[in-house]
Specification:
With about 140 residues, the protein is mainly β. It contains no helices and twelve strands. Strands 1, 3, 4, 6, 7, 8, 9 and 10 form an eight-stranded mixed sheet that branches. A four-stranded mixed sheet has the order 5-2-11-12, with no helix packed on it. Strand 11 and strand 12 form a beta hairpin.
């Protein structure tokens, strides 16, 4: 039985460092659990809705699921705890499959041979860089300042 982990409130955290570094504009997902997690990512591309997976993040590690400046305000994530069986999910449905995938479109997932999976929404507030922290009980957005 899969336990559903709740999505928590957005928390702001400065991501500045004392030494100058080149700006890295990405969407990162950090795993703050002791399990390995698998991550799927969804977004609206120029050609329409697209979902991709799987990125794997070990315990206390991060995965970059989108490299470069974030051009949209909203992105979507689904993650599953590979060891304990929990999931970070939501009510925005997109297509996934067990093997690595890039799937165009969100309609008729089952009829097209895919799974219909609930993703949760990330509001990046128009920023070009964003980090999600996934914990045992929730997910938290971290934005650079």
């Amino acid at each position: 039985m899969i336990r559903t982990l709740v999505i928590a409130a957005v928390v702001m955290l400065p991501a500045s460092v004392m030494l100058p570094q080149p700006a890295l504009a990405d969407l990162r997902v950090c795993n703050q659990t002791q399990s390995t997690i698998s991550i799927a990512f969804g977004y609206r591309a120029e050609s329409g809705w697209q979902s991709e997976g799987w990125w794997v993040a070990g315990p206390e590690a991060c995965a970059i699921v989108y490299q470069g400046d974030l051009n949209s305000r909203y992105y979507y994530l689904y993650a599953v705890d590979d060891m304990a069986g929990g999931a970070w999910d939501g009510s925005v449905f997109m297509c996934t499959q067990d093997a690595s995938f890039t799937i165009f479109g969100v309609e008729d997932c089952l009829a097209r041979g895919y799974e219909r999976t609930g993703f949760f929404e990330i509001d990046t507030q128009g920023r070009t860089d964003w980090t999600m922290q996934l914990t045992e009980n929730n997910s938290t957005s971290l934005e650079p300042q």
